[in-house]
Amino acid sequence: MTATSTQIQLVNRPVGWPTADDFRTVTVEYGDLAPGQVRVVNEFVSVDPYMRGRMIDTRSYIPPFALDATMTGGAVGRVVETTVDELPVGTLVSHQYGWRDVVQEDADGFRALPEPPANAASSVYLGVLGMTGLTAYVGLLTIARMQPGDTVFISGAAGAVGTAAGQIAQLKGAKRVIGSAGTPEKVALLTERYGYDAAFDYKDDRSIREQLRDAAPDGIDVYFDNVGGEHLEAALDSFNDGGRAALCGAIAQYNSTTRTPGPSNMANIITRGLTLTGFTIGHYFDQAPAFRGEMGQWFADGKVVHDETVVDGIENSVDAFLGLMRGENVGKMVVRTGS
Amino acid sequence: MTATSTQIQLVNRPVGWPTADDFRTVTVEYGDLAPGQVRVVNEFVSVDPYMRGRMIDTRSYIPPFALDATMTGGAVGRVVETTVDELPVGTLVSHQYGWRDVVQEDADGFRALPEPPANAASSVYLGVLGMTGLTAYVGLLTIARMQPGDTVFISGAAGAVGTAAGQIAQLKGAKRVIGSAGTPEKVALLTERYGYDAAFDYKDDRSIREQLRDAAPDGIDVYFDNVGGEHLEAALDSFNDGGRAALCGAIAQYNSTTRTPGPSNMANIITRGLTLTGFTIGHYFDQAPAFRGEMGQWFADGKVVHDETVVDGIENSVDAFLGLMRGENVGKMVVRTGS
């Protein structure tokens, strides 16, 4: 049986902020399945900040998106036709064939998932029970080596990784968890919904440095960086001796066309004995089983809140991505492909 | 019996480059020993880059020097009068009562040393067999976790720590050791005397970035930073995935009166999964026994070269320190107090 797939391709490498003209929507017709293939109809596809890095052609940990080809990324869908026993029709799967509503590929590229918990849609596997949650878990516990009693600062705290990281920090016994976000509404959510002890607006007239000092009068021990730039500089000034930073993202710079100077207080790294460690989650998949066990239990017990910002329609994926870049999401940004 | 001591005091907190006017030389008369005290005549006193940080009054890992008081720092001397059995007359001791030729204090402040190896003066305990060598050893092996087969880059490589670090890297099985220094003469010594595989002049017209790329065409795994600034930026550009930096010093900035921007390529820390760790040696004295065992053996076996730049006369200590700041030393800079 044939099928039609709507797919999003990159046609220009954006310089500065991406625009709609950098992408195009194409229709792909799939023929009958070849042996070993499955056809999957996606339920949700992910848009993530790291994808901005794949739109340019530079040395990185992951190859750039090819021009005039369909982009890739996390997605969850359901098998609708199959040639393999391991993935019968109806199986929920996660995979990297995002940016499209229907995909037909070798079964190797798909991983079967359990049905989502009763209180969640399958998109939870793109969020708090998926790569996003794993990133928060590994960044906080393995990279920054958070210990019970630590004071933890998380930037971009209302985003997908930040909302998860703040909750994990509390569940793991942090003394105090502080978050920054870019609107007063998000700031309010941090303390009211995501368990942060203190939060501030980084677009406020007062500097990030000053607001962080007020929020953490006894200093910070751990910094989970999703933003970079001025946030990292403020963290270096607030660190206690032996502090540890997990550098996860630098969204402040992703659309910059100039080289951004680093923090002017790098000397604090020496005098306070700090450690800054960058990471990308692809090197830490060995921790996925531990993460799934612990986070799955927390989620089932209602100890972790999962929020998402849903954009409907695969044809609106680029809008969803650009909205993410502008910080229009609370929690995980996903596209519901439902057709 | 009384004694006269010549001592160097700080009288102004320098802004920018220190000058002779920021210091004064005083004469102190000691009376008879009190119970528990010893009197020591110093043989060598140490001048070290970290002392610049103690001349200003800012939060740091070690309190600032008090104004109008004799400064402190590493020194080795010999007991000339004693009231305690543990430190008989003639004992060689190390201690922190530097910046003076004679000291009289409680015995607690002194640690007995074995006589130096036949091929060395007691100043070796301020250099390769002392704090300097320990700094190189800990920075390379514990902080940067150097492994056999790593390519290692060391900045300020002709200084006290750098000459030791390069030799330790080779003895521990580095694949390739690269150093930078500030004069053609020092660059030549790095490869001819200290076992570096490649070296370059960081004051050359060609950028540090470009010279490092040429010296390490396959990238670097470990960076031992004594300089900071442009060196760190170059290292971030040359790092292989998973690279590790030990940040030990930032002499490029010690006399700067403006805030120096950090590296403009901090994003590499994330995409390449790098770790930057700052340290000050005071937190790692637990490793001194292992260091003394291993380094002592290497030195006794003639596997490690120890060079020093000696300035004669305690009254010339400030000149020695200023010369150190200007990079006039090769190896360890010491003052021979001999009177």
Automatic annotation (TrEMBL), chains A, B:
SUPFAM superfamilies: GroES-like (SSF50129), NAD(P)-binding Rossmann-fold domains (SSF51735). Residues 19-335 form the Enoyl reductase (ER) domain. SMART domains: PKS_ER (SM00829). The keyword Oxidoreductase applies. It holds the Pfam family ADH_N_2. GO terms for molecular function: oxidoreductase activity, acting on the CH-CH group of donors, NAD or NADP as acceptor. Keywords: Oxidoreductase. InterPro entries: ADH-like_C, ADH_N_2, ER, GroES-like_sf, MDR_fam, NAD(P)-bd_dom_sf. This is Putative oxidoreductase. It comes from Gordonia rhizosphera NBRC 16068.
